Amino acid sequence: MIRLLWVIFLVVAIAAAAQNSPAPLAFAHVNVVDTRAGGLQRDVSVLVVGGRIAGIGRNLKVPAQTIAVDAKNGYLIPGLWDMHVHTDFGDWLPGGREVILPLFVANGVTGVRDMGGDLKVLQQWRADSAAGKLIGPRMVISGPMLDGPQPRFPASISIRNATDALRAVDDLRSGGADFIKIQSLIPRDGYFAAADEAKKRNITFVGHVPDAVRASEAAEAGQKSIEHLTGVFEACSPLEAELMKGPKGPRRFVETYDDAQATALTATFARKRTWQVPTLVWERGQWLIDESDFRNHPLAKYAPAYWKEHTWKMFTDDILKTMDTDPVAYRRRFVQKELDIVGKMHRAGVPFLAGTDTAAGVYVLPGFSLHEELQLFVRAGFTPLEALQTATLNPALFLGREADFGAVEKGKSADLVLLSANPLENIGNTRSIEAVVIRGQLLRRKDLDALLRQVQTAAASLSVRNDRRSTQ
Asked: If you placed Cys at 103, which of 18, 124, 285, 367 could pair as Cys (CB 3.0 to 4.6 Å)?
């Protein structure tokens, strides 16, 4: 416990020191990656003052006492966003403050969309991060999810009917939630009541396509994003009504897939601009979980023992018992079919966001997993630029925050990642992180490495009880 408190103190001290630093920053001789059209602004300087980009060019006037960063041969991109995460998930995921939040920043993830958690805890973490009391990304928060009468997950609200749904939307809106998240078991009348109320209360409505609702209906109802391709493969089959009632799974999805129906669904998504967050790294891990050996995973050192011994074991047992019951050959075909349908929708103009479902997914680790997600987008047919946009420009557009985020441009918030290699040539180069700037504060590679060591120490000594105390 003493060691854990010391680690927490170190993280807080680094954050506070950065927050109180008044000096502007200047990246010299850097190549700025254009996340709108591709291409580079080569060998320029980028000046950061007061947490915003003050200028980009070759002959900038630099204020006195500027912190100079020699970025020659480096590539500057906007801070990355993971648009589907869980950072506080009841007692299932201890380590939100000490593990999850700093792992994002250490991996260049400067913004996240939290898709289900304790609203008050998350709001406090967001405030503490903004105040420099801890190191963490910017956060857009749903609070608890709207699920069925008997929710399957913590951080959920039980919805039995339309009345429950109206009350839940109103309570979350009044409590300061940024959007409404729907889960799979919500009843049909509750879903449409929540969708209508969200429109009336002017709050974004996103999540799963529930078991009782068609994907096309969700799009027409104004659901802004669909997660995990829920409802998509049912809608790509002539047996959609039957599959909605179950049983369903990779074998039936693959065997009954109809490309004409997929084309019609894709056209609906494109027309309604229904964003897709396929969480491909989680999907691949789920459907092929019995083909993976995580015992010697190199990133396991960053996961608290409780995740590995309890939460992830619970997920694994449930997946093997109830979901991954089809022969592995069909599951491999389905994982490829997911990439195929993502590519098909992308070519038709359906907008996409990068999201991973970390940290709930088995070995879908905060920050690290986002870089895997970008590589899977490329495997689905995206160019490296288009994959990069799913974690930079597209989140800014989706959130209505293009004035602040999504590109390295004068006037925008200084959330930046300095890479040693060009991500437009190989999307895997987003891993080559030399420095991260969040809210205008610089963390060099040595600072990021120290942060990772502190996370490893915290993970080794973390228990559910002391983590939940630290969030209150």
From this structure: 367
